[in-house]
Amino acid sequence: MTDTHRPLVIKTTSGLDRPETTNQAFTVAAAAVAAGAEVSLWLAGEASWFALPGRAAELELEHAAPLPELLEAVLAAGTVTLCTQCAARRDIGPDDILPGIRIAGAPVFVEEILRPDAQALMY
Length: 123
What we know:
Pfam families: DsrE. 33% of the residues lie in helices and 19% in strands. By secondary structure, it is α/β, with parallel strands linked by helices.
């Protein structure tokens, strides 16, 4: 049986300022992982804060899966990346972030989204 899933790259810039948009990005990423897709979730802008321990728990949204559970699902079977510039602007370093999250910049993002079969979504 051939894998019919395209790699999915999701970039979110939303944080506590836009809880529904934030939750949507994480929900789609977790659902895609559960469906067996290769998922790369990028945290940029206000979403950068979710790379820090405990920060995902600060987002509470009625009728939505808890953000820490969604992030854990993506970390378990996908890739989570914190934007290099966004981390630097917030004084977030490699020792500050959750295990399994990498810090990378635009060249890596562009490489991921330019793969011939990739699907990119922005939130």
